[in-house]
Amino acid sequence: MPEGPEIRRAADKVEAVIKDTPLEKVEFGLAQLKPYAKQLEGEKVLGMETRGKALITHFSNALSMYSHNQLYGVWHTCKRNELPDTKRQLRVGLHTKTHSAILYSASDISIWPSQTIHEHPFLQRVGPDVLNGSVTKELVLERLRSKAFYNRALSGLYLDQRFMAGLGNYLRSEILFAAGVHPSLKPSQLDDEQLRSLAHHTLAICKRSYETGGYTVYTELREILEAKGVNFEGTRFMVFDREEQPCRVCATPIKRQSYNGRRLYWCSQCQAK
User: Fold this and answer.
1) How confident is the prediction for the chain on average, in pLDDT?
2) Nearest to residue 257, comparing CAs of 179, 153, 163, 178?
3) Helix runs in 19-110, H state only
4) What's the pLDDT at 1?
5) Mapping DSSP to helix (H, G, I), strand (E, B) and coil, where does residue 143 land?
6) What is the DSSP letter of 30?
7) Is residue 117 a contact partner of residue 66, using CB atoms and an 8 Å limit?
8) pLDDT above 90 (res 249)
9) Could you give the 3-state DSSP secondary structure of residue 104?
10) Which residues contact 37 (CB under 8 A, 6 or more apart)?
């Protein structure tokens, strides 16, 4: 399942080929959106904003498109004359003179006036995006201490998009490990230093994954592992998907348990209660 860093990289990929360039052709695969195609042709994509797994595409005519990848949605970019041969269902096609950006298989898509796009029900429910440049450690700390989240177990809180949009399963395990806190603890059970560490790593781990294409291990360790010939999947995480393998810090076997219906990994030594 893609998480915040993957969605932001998808947005970057689309922006790289169509941003600020007139759209020669616009296609919609959903009947209710087809009337907007002509309104958008000749316009430009001004930018793409992410809120967790939702993506907001802003156009130059003061319209914005909300899209959510859900389970199967995926953006594909290519040269205009090299469209992919696929059985996936086209939902959105944005074509410039030279390139195309196509959204396949997603079904939660709508067009809004740009001024009111943030009234979308999903966007009103979710918290700040972890990769938004305006989000600071102080803001994350404030949310950890807030009445809404202070007495929630971290195992559940770090999957709740109302807390911070863009967090997900692998990020949950990696952030809690980096902060050295046990998944069953609540923010109310952490001291000030632990809370500040958690706020710091919440942003740092997400940013690292975004910048490196999915790695959450720190750079020095990554270089050591890669020099030994360890592949991407064997290198990228500190604890996630490493059940019974030695902790990269203390060599204690990594534990796995189902929290909130999804697998979570931690080190009983580094994250002792």
Assistant:
1) 95
2) 153
3) 37-40
4) 64
5) helix
6) S
7) yes
8) yes
9) strand
10) 26, 27, 28
- What is the DSSP annotation of 187-207? GGGS-HHHHHHHHHHHHHHHH
pTM here is 0.92
Measured CA to CA, the distance from residue 146 to residue 273 in angstroms comes to 22
Distances from the Cα of 21 to the Cα of 44, 83, 187, angstroms: 5, 19, 46
User: Can you name the residues that pair with 129 across neighbouring β-strands?
Assistant: 165
pLDDT over 90 (residue 209) = yes
**Which residues participate in catalysis according to the annotation?**
2-3, 53, 262
CA separation for the pair 6, 4 (Å, rounded):
5
Average pLDDT over residues 45-54: 94
Burial of 204 (0-12, 13-18, 19+ CB in 10 A): middle
> Closest Cα to residue 21, out of 49, 38, 41?
41
Find residue 59's DSSP bridge partners.
45
Q: Show Cβ contacts of residue 193 under 8 Å, excluding neighbours closer than 6 positions.
A: none
Structure tokens at 106: 């997603």
